[in-house]
TrEMBL record:
<keyword id="KW-1133">Transmembrane helix</keyword>
<keyword id="KW-0472">Membrane</keyword>
<dbReference type="InterPro" id="IPR000412">
    <property type="entry name" value="ABC_2_transport"/>
</dbReference>
<feature type="transmembrane region" description="Helical">
    <location>
        <begin position="80"/>
        <end position="106"/>
    </location>
</feature>
<feature type="transmembrane region" description="Helical">
    <location>
        <begin position="51"/>
        <end position="74"/>
    </location>
</feature>
<keyword id="KW-0812">Transmembrane</keyword>
<keyword id="KW-1003">Cell membrane</keyword>
<dbReference type="InterPro" id="IPR051784">
    <property type="entry name" value="Nod_factor_ABC_transporter"/>
</dbReference>
<dbReference type="InterPro" id="IPR013525">
    <property type="entry name" value="ABC2_TM"/>
</dbReference>
<comment type="similarity">
    <text>Belongs to the ABC-2 integral membrane protein family.</text>
</comment>
<keyword id="KW-0046">Antibiotic resistance</keyword>
<feature type="transmembrane region" description="Helical">
    <location>
        <begin position="196"/>
        <end position="213"/>
    </location>
</feature>
<feature type="transmembrane region" description="Helical">
    <location>
        <begin position="127"/>
        <end position="154"/>
    </location>
</feature>
<feature type="transmembrane region" description="Helical">
    <location>
        <begin position="160"/>
        <end position="184"/>
    </location>
</feature>
<keyword id="KW-0813">Transport</keyword>
<protein>
    <recommendedName>
        <fullName>Transport permease protein</fullName>
    </recommendedName>
</protein>
<dbReference type="Pfam" id="PF01061">
    <property type="entry name" value="ABC2_membrane"/>
</dbReference>
C-alpha cells in the first residue's frame, strides 16, 4: 500500500517542476526557422517522390512548348527556344509555389499544426521554414530547365551572372507569391482544394502573359491585361537579364510588386495562422 507523500515531499516536487519550466528555452526566430526548414527537407528525403514535379515538369514543358508551338510561332523550334525558355522557367517555378500551401494545409488536417502551437518557438517559423525549404524545389527545377534548354541550343547572352541575377529575382517574387497561397491554404479544408483554387488563378496569369508569345501579336483588348499582368513583368525581367538587356526600371517594378504582395498577404496569413483553431 502506497503512503501519501508528505507536505515536504510535495514542495520538493513542485520546486523540481518550477525548475524544469525555468529550463525550457524559447527557440528564437533564426533557430526556429532553421529547425522547421530542416523538418521540411527531411520529409523530402523520406518521400523523394515529392520532387517528381520539380524534376519532370521542366523537361516536359521545354520539349512540349518548343517542339509543338515553336514552328508555328517563330518559324523554327530553335528560334522559339531563344524567346520562350525564360517564360517556361518562370512558369515552372511559379506553379511550384502552391506546394508550400498544400504542405501547411496537410499539417493542419493531420493535427501536426496543433502540436506546433504548443511548442516554445517563434510562431511564424512553421510557415517561413516551409517557404525556405521549397527553395530547394525551385533550384532543382531551375537547373533542369536550363540544362534541357542549353542542350537544345539555348544561349544566354547575359552570361552566368545574368542568369543568376534573373533567377534570384524570380525566386524572390515566388517567395512573395507563396504568402498569397498560404492564405488559401489556411482557409480551405483540403490540400486538393488548395491546388484547385491556386491552379485556377495561375493558369490565366501564366498563359495570358508574355511567357509564350509577344504581347504585340495579341488583340488590343488582351494586351491591356497582359501589360499589367505581374507574371509578364517577371518573365520580361528574367528574359532581359538572360539576354543582357536588363534595365533599372524593370528591376524596380519587379521589386515593388514583390514588396506589395508581401505587405498585403504576409500579415493576413500570419493573422489567420495565429487565430486558427
Amino acid at each position: 500500500m502506497n503512503a501519501k507523500p508528505s507536505a515536504e515531499a510535495r514542495v520538493v516536487r513542485l520546486d523540481d517542476t518550477l525548475d524544469t519550466h525555468q529550463q525550457v528555452e524559447l527557440l528564437g526566430p533564426g533557430r526556429a526557422v532553421l529547425t522547421f526548414t530542416w523538418r521540411s527537407l527531411l520529409k523530402i528525403r523520406h518521400v523523394p517522390e515529392q520532387l517528381l514535379d520539380a524534376v519532370l515538369y521542366p523537361v516536359l514543358f521545354v520539349l512540349m512548348f518548343v517542339y509543338v508551338l515553336g514552328g508555328a510561332i517563330s518559324g523554327t523550334p530553335e528560334d522559339y527556344l531563344q524567346y520562350a525558355l525564360p517564360g517556361i522557367l518562370a512558369q515552372t517555378i511559379i506553379f511550384l509555389t502552391i506546394y508550400t500551401a498544400m504542405t501547411i494545409n496537410a499539417d493542419i488536417q493531420k493535427g501536426v499544426f496543433e502540436r506546433y502551437r504548443t511548442q516554445p518557438v517563434w510562431r511564424p517559423a512553421h510557415l517561413v521554414g516551409a517557404l525556405l525549404a521549397d527553395m530547394l524545389r525551385y533550384g532543382i527545377a531551375t537547373v533542369l530547365t536550363l540544362i534541357v534548354g542549353f542542350v537544345l541550343g539555348y544561349r544566354a547572352s547575359g552570361g552566368l551572372l545574368g542568369v543568376l541575377a534573373g533567377v534570384g529575382l524570380l525566386f524572390l517574387f515566388c517567395f512573395a507569391l507563396s504568402w498569397m497561397w498560404l492564405v488559401v491554404g489556411l482557409k480551405v479544408r483540403t490540400p486538393s482544394a488548395v491546388q484547385g483554387v491556386s491552379v485556377l488563378i495561375l493558369f490565366p496569369l501564366t498563359f495570358v502573359s508574355s511567357a509564350y508569345a509577344p504581347p504585340e501579336t495579341m488583340p488590343t483588348w488582351l494586351q491591356a491585361f497582359v501589360n499589367v499582368n505581374p507574371v509578364t513583368h517577371v518573365v520580361d525581367t528574367l528574359r532581359d537579364f538572360m539576354n543582357n538587356e536588363a534595365t533599372l526600371s524593370g528591376v524596380l517594378i519587379l521589386l515593388g510588386m514583390t514588396a506589395v504582395i508581401i505587405a498585403i498577404f504576409a500579415p493576413i496569413a500570419l493573422r489567420i495562422y495565429n487565430r486558427i483553431s
